[in-house]
Design goal:
Elements: E1 2-13, E2 16-28, E3 33-37, H1 44-51, E4 59-64, E5 67-68, H2 74-82, E6 84-88, H3 99-109, H4 114-127, H5 143-154, E7 161-165, H6 173-190, E8 193-198, H7 201-207, E9 210-215, E10 218-224, H8 225-229, H9 235-240, E11 252-260, H10 268-276, E12 281-290, E13 293-303, H11 310-318, E14 322-326
Parallel strand pairs: 3-8, 3-9, 6-7, 7-8
Antiparallel strand pairs: 1-2, 1-4, 4-5, 9-10, 11-13, 11-14, 12-13
Helix pairs in contact: 3-4, 3-5, 4-5, 5-6
The protein binds adenosine-5'-triphosphate.
Residues 11, 13, 18, 20, 38, 40-46, 199 line the site of adenosine-5'-triphosphate.
């Protein structure tokens, strides 16, 4: 649905060049919520703005619904952009217009006749739960309500794609939750594809089907959230389940075990301890509800160096758990060996 290929954007200001997006490939599937995470300056906004051509990429392709946007011009490009809605961190409402007036604005620009416009505005306000505030001015409503106006306005042209530029960053946690719930609901009800950028792990946890992590203009990992969480060394997993730096002691093996769904309900620690008559030390962990599935990460310590724990590690893998061994040059239980964890701080 959105295909980004070898995208590159360089800003040139006063003789200085900044490569904001440096060869990004990304595929956002139809009807999914895709989150791009990264620290400030990673290039997230630039990437998003290249999708609806608020920024012109220097190289690469952006295909939305099979259409190569940078290759379009004039009326074709205008029509293609109407099918892409966008919401912003600071809402961008017109203070002199009422809530209804703000939602009507893009319809006026599109030349929708007055009667049809009024009907569509009513429909949109209903969709975002603002019918009672139609006549209020932006100054008279809360931040969450302002974002609802932003969402209604973005949906005016019946887009298939919604781009969200840090839409909840200016909101308190409770309001953030209600806006994310609304986005999830619209995604399901309208089949809307949502590409959002955020620096908040919580946003990914609550609504994203897939995610990518950006650093220095590049995507360092991407894929379905569930798959990323089960992937050894995943930065997303470390961000969603923060655990302190492992303390590696001689004569022990420190292992991070990620589990999901059914395996989250099985007492794998006590089974492991019983089967091998060993003491298993629990060093930390958490269980979260992610995309309707319970996913957890537990750090455990086993007696003995990794090479004497090959059977124990294989036992955990056979139980359907993702196993990551810390400090081992190679995990002998995994085919080809699992490399030692590359420690780098997660994005937030
Ligand atoms: N209009 C511009 N002119 C020059 N440099 C820019 C411009 N916009 C962004 N940059 C630079 O490009 C890089 C990426 O910026 P971008 O805003 O895309 O990152 P970001 O991940 O969205 O960060 P933030 O969350 O702080 O917005 C940064 O180094 C930034 O300073």
């Amino acid at each position: 649905m959105i295909q980004i290929e070898k995208l590159r954007k360089v800003y040139r200001t006063r003789g200085r060049e900044v490569t904001a997006v440096d060869g990004v490939d990304l595929t956002v599937r139809e009807g999914e919520v895709f989150g791009v995470l990264g620290r400030s300056g990673a290039g997230k906004s630039t990437l998003l703005r290249c999708v609806n051509l608020l920024e012109r990429p220097d190289a690469g392709r952006v295909l939305v619904d099979g259409q190569d946007l940078p290759a379009l011009s004039g009326g074709e490009l205008r029509r293609a952009r109407q099918r892409i809605g966008m919401i912003h961190q600071h809402f961008g409402l017109l203070s002199s217009r009422t809530v209804a007036g703000n939602v009507a604005f893009p319809l006026e620009v599109m030349g929708v006749p007055r009667a049809e416009r009024a009907e569509r505005v009513a429909e949109l306000l209903e969709l975002v739960g603002l019918t009672e505030h139609a006549r209020a001015y932006p100054a008279q409503i809360s931040g969450g309500q302002k974002q609802r106006v932003g969402i209604a306005r973005a949906l005016a042209g019946r887009p298939k794609v919604l781009l969200s530029d840090e839409a909840t960053s200016a909101l308190d946690p409770e309001t953030t939750a209600s806006i994310l719930e609304l986005l999830r609901d619209l995604n399901r009800r309208l089949g809307l594809t949502i590409l959002l950028i955020t620096h908040e792990m919580d946003v990914v946890k609550r609504i994203c089907d897939s995610a990518a992590i950006m650093r220095d203009g590049r995507v360092v990992e991407s894929g379905p959230v569930r798959e990323l969480l089960l992937r050894p060394g995943s930065e997303l997993a470390r961000g969603l389940f923060p655990l302190p730096e492992p303390v590696l002691r001689d004569g022990t093996t420190v292992v991070d075990v990620t589990f999901e769904g059914d395996s989250a309900d099985r007492p794998f620690v006590s089974t492991l301890a019983r089967t091998y008559s060993i003491d298993v030390n629990i060093l930390g962990g958490a269980v979260e509800e992610i995309g309707g599935t319970r996913i957890g990460r537990l750090r455990i310590e086993l007696p003995g160096e990794p090479d004497v724990n090959a059977a124990q590690l294989a036992h955990l893998r056979e139980a359907g758990l993702a196993v990551e061994v810390h400090g081992a040059a190679g995990d002998p239980a995994a085919p080809g060996g699992t490399p030692a964890t590359e420690e780098e701080a997660p994005v937030s």
